[in-house]
Amino acid sequence: MTPHTPGHSVRATLAGASWLCALGVCLPEEPRPRIARAGTPRQKLERLEQRIAAARHAATPKPRADKDKYAAMSLAWRMVVELVISVMVGAAMGWGLDSVFSTLPLFLIVFVLLGFAAGVRTVMRSAHEMQRKQLAVGESQGAKQDEGA
Fold first, then answer.
1. Residues 27 and 17 sit within 8 Å (Cβ to Cβ)
2. Are 27 and 21 in contact, with CB atoms under 8 Å apart?
3. In sequence order, what DSSP letters do the residues of 52-116 get, joined into one string?
4. DSSP one-letter code for 34
5. 127-149 burial code (b ≥16 CB/10 A, e <16)
6. What are the CA-CA distances from residue 61 to residues 11, 54, 56, 73, 74 (Å)?
């Protein structure tokens, strides 16, 4: 290290050591590493494209092995929530109508049953939707295997 001189303070600031210059001690100037600049602009561009492609390939996330397990669990929870919410909405509507008309158990029972029926219908629709997706994925994978053979 050298004593503080005006020429060194700029270099030390650039190097991130401005606090040393504030103390009166600065780092000496270090030569910058040379970057290979040989080649035509087209060659430089090709090297840059290769570096970008390598960086993208390294940054690409790998597929998760447990993806299917979580997808099935997510579907199951979705169906349970749809069923429970539809029953709760039916119960709330029935309770509200019972309090308006002062017929406490009648509308509550009717709308809980209607909510249950609506929930079962929604769960069945979700199951058919997932079955169609799985069949479409199976067909597309079969077509890819046929093309590769």
1. yes
2. no
3. HHHHHHHHSPPPPTTHHHHHHHHHHHHHHHHHHHHHHHHHHHHHHHHHHHT-HHHHHHHHHHHHH
4. P
5. eeeeeeeeeeeeeeeeeeeeeee
6. 40, 13, 10, 22, 22
Q: Tens of pLDDT along the chain (149 residues)?
A: 455 555 544 444 445 555 556 666 665 565 655 555 667 888 889 999 999 999 888 888 877 766 677 888 888 899 999 999 999 999 999 999 999 999 989 999 999 999 999 999 999 999 999 899 888 888 877 766 666 55
The whole-angstrom separation of Cα 55 and Cα 128 is 42
**4 burial type by CB count under 10 A (0-12 exposed, 13-18 middle, 19+ buried):** middle
CB atoms within 10 A of CB 112: 20
Give φ, ψ of 25 to 5 degrees.
-125, 125
Give the count of beta carbons closer than 10 Å to the beta carbon of residue 27.
17
For 104-109, which contacts have Cβ atoms below 8 Å and span 24 or more sequence positions? none
